[in-house]
Design a protein that fits this description.
Helix content: 40-55%
Number of strands: 12
Strand content: 5-15%
Distance between the termini: 54 Å
Largest sheet: 5 strands, mixed
Shape: globular
Order of helices and strands: HEEHEHHHHEHHHHHHHHEEEEHHEEEEH
Radius of gyration: 26 Å
Structural class: alpha+beta
Length: about 475
């Protein structure tokens, strides 16, 4: 399939896009500016919004752009019908993502109200426990693939726990969640598998509430129907899962391949949360979102947008817009103006949970495996790209084999030293060597020396005690 489709427009799918979608975006930027005409699957025309300020204007101006795909011309004429590969992503559903006005406030209010009931410190305990459970499965081998054996599983374990359905955790659920947003031939079936599990769970919790997000969502004063609850569970689960799985893999890859990144972590100039934030700029977990739709004729980025046109929220191209990032190598520490979590009325409500999973999971892995190293040359790493995301295929590593740990216990007091002298947490202070006494010319034979007193145990530093408290120990 050629990279050029109907009307001479560039395709955002197919071999060329799968190989280098970021390169396709840059070609579009050079040819058309911050807003460019392009094609998604089945050669459906959309506007790819590439500029940072143009993306922010679109998501923050609900009077001109909305997420209700029922007004999209391609949906009305059937070219983007229910059998479209991206239908699970853009098809209207009874949830806050597609609503606006009073209905959006009602549904969004229920989600944020349920989010407020989550104990974030308690969640970090579970994240740490699940992280160490996964690490126990690989630590004795000395080798692992941190994508398939860690990054892809930790967010699903945590999110199903948050939703109150840990019994539904399985390899099938992990793969279905990943497949349903890819635009593949099996995406619709994968979406159905996930929705069936969520619908069964809503029925169970409606009959027997417990202390979880699902029960809290059902109990909100907005009185969501079972269909609305299930749809919002899907939204929270898939958005948090896919974004966090990609985020963990991206942060770990940078730590293992970028000497500057690793040196900043080891030297204390950067914390794991700051490393996560830098990754959200450079490699956002979702590279784009389909989509926004024009409610009226308008102008954006020098282009005439007609009522009913579809627009692509360009997260990755917006993050590298030369207007806001003329030097891509410059550090973005302390700057949260990236588009990774969108913005405006539809900004991701669960971003703090995603950050917590990534922060805690990466920190737990580096604490347990401080000598972890990439097992292949960086040039051998590969990615799978879709319109929605760029997914690292594998991250093979080696490390010193070690026995499993009790996932409910405190961290081991002594861990093997890293090969290159870096560590995320500050090391314990080293003892000061004793000062030798001055030499004496001659002295009588000394009396028998008294037994030395035992040296008192070194008390943990305040930073180490704080870290263990924060991680839930």
């Amino acid at each position: 399939m050629s990279g050029i489709g109907a009307g001479g427009l560039r395709r955002l799918y197919g071999p060329e896009a799968d190989e280098d979608l970021a390169g396709v975006y840059e070609k579009l930027r050079a040819e058309h500016g911050p807003v460019a005409p392009a094609l998604i699957h089945n050669d459906v025309r959309v506007w790819a919004v590439l500029g940072h300020s143009e993306n922010l204007h679109m998501v923050r101006t609900p009077s001109q752009y909305c997420r209700d795909s029922r007004i999209w011309t391609a949906v009305k004429d059937g070219t983007a019908g229910p059998d479209h590969p991206l239908a699970p992503v853009f098809t209207w559903q009874p949830m806050c993502t597609f609503a606006e006005g009073a209905e959006h406030q009602r549904l969004r209010g229920a989600v944020t109200g349920a989010m407020d009931t989550i104990d974030h410190r308690g969640i970090r305990r579970h994240i740490n426990r699940y992280s160490n459970k996964l690490l126990n499965e690989i630590c004795e081998r000395g080798t692992a693939d941190l994508v398939s054996q860690f990054a892809e599983h930790l967010p699903m374990m945590v999110m199903l726990h948050v939703l109150g359905m840990p019994e539904d955790y399985s390899e099938r659920m992990v793969q279905a969640a990943r497949d349903m947003i890819k635009g593949t031939e099996t995406a619709i079936a994968s979406n159905q598998f996930v929705m069936d599990a969520l619908t069964r769970h809503v029925v169970r919790r409606r009959a027997q509430p417990e202390e979880d997000f699902t029960s809290a969502l059902i109990a909100q004063p907005q009185q969501l129907t079972d269909d609305e609850v299930a749809a919002h569970l899907r939204l929270v689960l898939i958005a948090a899962y896919e974004a966090t799985a990609n985020l963990i893999a991206n942060v770990l890859r940078m730590v293992l391949t970028d000497p500057r990144f690793r040196a900043q972590l080891s030297g204390g100039q950067m914390t794991v949360p700051e490393a996560v934030e830098q990754s959200l700029w450079d490699e956002p977990p979702f590279s784009a979102m389909v989509g926004y739709f024009a409610k009226q004729d308008t102008q954006l980025g020098g282009q005439h947008i007609k009522a009913g046109d579809g627009l692509l929220l360009g997260i990755q191209p917006g993050n590298v817009d030369p207007v806001v990032r003329p030097d891509l190598s410059a550090s973005m520490q302390g700057n949260r103006a990236h588009l990774a979590f969108s913005g405006g009325p539809h900004e991701c409500p669960g971003q703090d949970i995603g950050r917590a999973i990534a922060d805690t999971g990466v920190d737990a892995l580096l604490m347990r495996l401080p000598d972890v190293e990439l097992a292949v040359d960086e040039s051998e790493l590969s990615w799978r790209s879709t319109i929605m995301s760029r997914h690292l295929v594998a991250l093979p590593v080696t490390f010193g084999a070690r026995p499993p740990q009790d996932v409910t216990a405190r961290p081991a007091a002594h861990v093997p030293g890293p090969r290159k002298g870096w560590e995320v947490s500050s090391p314990l202070p080293q003892p000061v060597p004793p000062v030798a006494p001055p030499p004496v010319a001659e002295a009588p034979a000394p009396a028998a020396a008294p037994e030395p007193e035992p040296e008192p145990a070194r008390r943990k530093g305040a930073w180490r005690r704080f870290l263990e408290w924060w991680r839930g120990y």
